[in-house]
Specification:
alpha/beta, Arc Repressor Mutant, subunit A, Rossmann fold, five-stranded antiparallel sheet, five-stranded parallel sheet, 44 helices
């Protein structure tokens, strides 16, 4: 039987016919279903064989498609794409005989065999003799680069071993290579499969038998060497891992004593023999999991291409559409790009469909049990494939392999020692086991750039298998507890210093923390460990922009905390602080944020944990800020200052200046805001605060950068005080620094609170557009909803000011929080928010009350009529008066401009012009900004 693996083989029946076919060096025997090229058997699919037989029997005729469909799919209705795939495979396979297209497509009519086929008797068929089975060329998808490299290596070096995990395609590649380069060896190429051998003592005799070298069993190796000394041949020793010592000895001896014989071996581990060159074979590359990927894009990845072609060969009769792309990617990723696993999955596609196959792969060892009947037993199911490797391990290596399966991602040697060590708990014993697993291709080694220590990783398929063995061993719970305790102890060594290097070191452990939390909160776990684990790891989740997921874990921990009296105040404070942040940054400011933070503050105060108190007060301050409770902002800033004073920490005082600057700014105390902002930015402590961020409590969560926030506060205050050029320089400097240090929170803060609104205030919509796009880019998928909401607000403002009426992606049109409502109301009167207007009308005086009153007046003017105009002028007067008291020159100018325009030609014309002139003359910069240009035009019109 020469048909390939992906279909149920048809029963071979001798029909008594003796008629065969030959074309070039190709021989075809329909009765025995055999096909050979230059005497070497060629493997093709059953359907391809049936199609070829019909075409060759009627060579030169045009065969319509219905006839070919009836021959290959007698009881099925399939699409034409299936026939095209089989024809393409045949043309590729037969290309080895020199003809590029033996089978021609005649458009609109069918296909024709263009070769010079002649009929011969079976007695004229060649005897294939010893030699390799030529592979179906479709089986080497994604391996052309590997074949090119191996071709060069095998010719240059005498002894090459292809290594890789089971099912990765070592044999397929070796056979393809043999078929490609055997013409370089006058005495031929030979496939020697040692998989069926149960004892090492049989290897030499088996090799001799394949080469037809008569030897006595005891002298088999000596006889082989004598036979091969004067010959030039290529020997492929396939599947050597279970008899590796004997095979290594034979390969080493032949390579050293037969000068013109080259050896290509396949094994799950290197031979470790003299003269051996190792070629590790990697899995097929897999596509990313993206719903936006098209079918054409996903087919650029070899794993996806193999899955599709094998599914078609198994009877899948549908064209791949864009909607299938994500399912294909999911299958490829879950199966780690392992060719055998993909082939096993492909067999299920015709009956279940791609989506169901992708979903069922979570139970892959039970699901992938339908291999080809002609395959070796260990390749018929995925589980049997890995069983074969497991049984070759010594017990210490088996135990370590089971235990390291608890790691969800990569891990270090030190991690393995602490979690998976044997009873001796020595590094040497673990290292020996890991070395054994790496050597047998059951474990991968990763070199992380910039990290000196190698890391290890199990392919997901291997990890799931090993984990099933861990469950069988009865050690699952104890090992999961070991991992959770180890992670908790390791977090304790980090303390409050989460710098870039520390985050990079911990990033691979996020998946392990997830697993540990899953165990801890389970009925058989320890919730106390889980509570401490999520509380102490919260800075890592924030830094990795996983705030939404963190919130879910923290909420679960808070529920568990209510039943625990053994959790200390510090852990409780950390947990509530992190949860308050997570809610704020994913759901926005709300009452639950303050409730959560106040609970944490109580724990911190009870335990006298000053640093936690400061962090929580700062968070309460931020929540009040966005809610628009600016007096509350001031109160929290003052309480923060008092706690900092008790702690007598200069860095805390520095932060207090920064908080006070924004609190004063928002409350309309602009001169005090300016003083505090400059103190925060230019204090001798500021440089230390930026350089030695680990000492500043705010950097423990890595949310904001002191310089970025201080410059942003300074920029806002400068603008309102009438220094537009200085303001723009400061906010640009803040954003540039935030980008330079790569803090997403800091970039968002500088843009939302400084650079975007100031660009609008300047009337520079081109700059505003650039910064809004940057804001959308840096917050996309980051889970920082508080900044994303700001981005949507500014984007909507741009659309309205540019006369564009669109609904942007993610624009939920929810009411804005007070700070955002205030901010958008200052961008243009047409953007006035009702909430902001109600607050201003209610008598509350804030940083923007004057401008909101002006916007209300401008909206009234649109109604026209004496009553509306009179009411608008009163609002302009009120706004101007408030701005004058605050020293808010920017709002003074705007109110004066609106008043002068509304009084043009009336009895108050001269007075309003004088007010405008006084405001205009007070400016010494920013003359090209929109507000000053409008004022100048109005003054120049007389």
């Amino acid at each position: 039987m020469t048909t390939s693996s992906d279909e149920t083989p048809k029963e071979v029946k001798e029909d008594g016919r003796s008629e065969c076919f030959a074309f070039g060096s190709v021989h075809l025997d329909p009765s025995t279903r055999s096909l050979s090229v230059q005497g070497v058997e060629l493997r093709i699919s059953d359907r391809a064989f049936d199609i070829l037989t019909v075409l060759v029997e009627r060579a030169g005729e045009i065969i319509d498609k219905s006839t070919l469909f009836a021959a290959a799919w007698p009881n099925a209705v399939v699409e034409e794409s299936n026939l095209r795939v089989q024809i393409a495979h045949l043309n590729k396979a037969l290309k080895a005989d020199g003809d590029a297209r033996l089978i021609q497509n005649i458009p609109g009519r069918g296909y024709r065999f263009a070769g010079a086929a002649r009929r011969i008797s079976r007695s004229q068929m060649p005897d294939p003799g010893p030699g390799p089975v030529a592979p179906d060329t479709s089986s080497i998808i994604g391996r052309h680069e590997d074949l090119d490299r191996l071709s060069a290596l095998v010719v240059k070096h005498k002894f090459i071993t292809i290594t890789g995990t089971g099912g990765i395609g070592k044999t397929t590649v070796a056979l393809a290579l043999l078929n490609r380069i055997r013409m370089h060896y006058p005495d031929g190429g030979f496939l020697i499969d040692v998989a069926p051998l149960e004892r090492s003592s049989l290897v030499a005799e088996h090799v001799a038998s394949i080469l037809q070298v008569p030897t006595a069993e005891a002298q088999a190796l000596e006889g082989l060497v004598r036979y091969l000394k004067g010959r030039s041949a290529l020997l492929v020793l396939d599947n050597c891992e279970h008899v590796i010592e004997a095979t290594a000895r034979i390969a080493e001896t032949i390579a050293s004593q037969a000068p013109h014989v080259h050896i290509l071996a396949t094994s799950r581990e290197p031979m470790r023999a003299r003269g051996e060159w190792v070629f590790p074979l990697a899995p097929l590359t897999t596509p990313p999991l993206s719903k936006a990927m098209t079918s054409e894009e996903v087919m650029r990845y070899p794993s996806a291409l193999l899955l599709r072609e094998r599914a078609i060969a198994a009877g899948w009769s549908f064209d791949l559409v864009d909607g299938d792309a994500s399912s294909v990617a999911e299958v490829c990723i879950k199966l780690d790009g392992l060719p055998l696993a993909l082939e096993l999955a492909a067999v299920r596609v015709p009956s279940l469909g791609l989506r169901t196959v992708a979903e069922r792969l979570d139970d892959r060892f039970d699901f992938l049990i339908k291999g080809r009947r002609t395959a070796d037993h260990r390749h018929q199911t995925l589980s049997a494939l890995i069983d074969w490797s497991y049984e070759t391990l010594v017990e210490p290596s088996r135990k370590i392999w089971r235990r390291i399966a608890c790691f969800a991602g990569s891990f270090s040697l030190d991690d393995a020692v602490h979690v998976a060590s044997l009873e001796s708990k020595t590094e040497a014993s673990v290292l020996d086991a890991l070395d054994d697993l790496v050597g047998k291709s059951l474990l991968m080694v990763e070199q992380v750039p910039g990290v000196s220590q190698h890391r290890f990783r199990l392919l997901e398929t291997m990890r799931l298998y090993a984990y099933s063995r861990l469950v069988e061993s009865g050690e699952e719970q104890s090992i999961r507890q070991r991992l959770a305790v180890y992670l908790l102890e390791k977090l304790g060594s980090v303390g409050s210093d989460w710098d870039v290097d520390e985050v990079a070191n911990w990033a691979p452990h996020v998946a392990d923390i997830r697993k540990a939390l899953e165990w801890g909160f389970s009925p058989t776990g320890d919730a106390g460990i889980a509570i401490q684990l999520i509380a102490n790891s919260a800075p890592l989740w924030f830094k990795m922009l996983l705030a939404s997921e963190l919130r879910v874990h923290l909420e679960r921990a808070r529920e568990a905390l209510r039943d625990r009296s053994d959790i200390d105040d510090l852990v409780s404070a950390k947990l509530h602080l992190a949860l308050g942040h997570a809610i704020f940054h994913t759901r926005g400011p709300q009452a639950s944020v303050e409730e959560t933070l106040r609970a944490g503050l109580a724990s911190a105060a009870h335990g006298n944990h000053v640093s936690q108190q400061l962090q929580i007060l700062w968070s309460l301050y931020g929540n009040e800020l966005v809610l628009g409770n600016y007096e509350g902002v001031q109160r929290n800033a003052q309480e923060f200052y008092e706690v900092a004073a008790r702690n007598n920490d200069p860095m805390s005082f520095l932060t207090a200046h920064r908080m006070a600057s924004l609190g004063n700014h928002l409350s309309g105390r602009l001169k005090s805001a300016l003083k505090e902002a400059r103190n925060a930015l230019h204090s001798p402590m500021a440089e230390a605060g930026t350089a030695n961020s680990r000492r500043d409590f705010l950097y423990q969560l890595k949310l904001y950068d002191h310089e970025v926030a201080s410059r942003t506060h300074l920029a806002r205050t400068l603008w309102i005080l009438g220094k537009p050029d200085e303001a723009f320089e400061e906010c640009q400097a803040a954003t540039e620094r935030a980008q330079r240090i790569g803090q997403t929170f800091a970039i968002g803060y500088s843009l939302v609170c400084g650079t975007c609104p100031i660009s609008f205030w300047r009337g520079d919509l081109a700059s505003a557009s650039r910064y809004v796009e940057l804001l959308a880019e840096v917050t996309a998928g980051a889970g920082i909803n508080v900044w994303r909401i700001g981005g949507h607000m500014f984007a909507r403002a741009l659309d309205q000011l540019n006369g564009v009426s669109v609904i942007r992606d993610g624009d939920d049109n929810l009411p804005l929080a007070a700070f955002y409502a205030d901010t958008v109301s200052t961008l243009d009167p047409m953007l006035l928010d009702e909430t902001a207007a109600a607050r201003a009308n209610g008598g509350e005086i804030t940083w923007c009350t004057a401008e909101i009153l002006r916007a209300m007046g401008e909206r009234l003017l649109l109604e026209q009529g004496a009553v509306a105009t009179s009411a608008a002028r009163l609002l302009f007067w009120r706004g101007h008066a408030i701005a004058s008291v605050q020293g808010a020159l920017a709002w003074q100018l705007r109110c004066a401009t609106s008043l002068a325009r509304s009084c043009a030609g009336g009895p108050m014309h001269a007075e309003s012009r004088q007010i405008l002139s006084n405001a205009y003359d007070a400016f010494d910069q920013g003359m090209d900004t929109r507000d000053l240009r409008l004022a100048a035009e109005l003054l120049n019109t007389g």
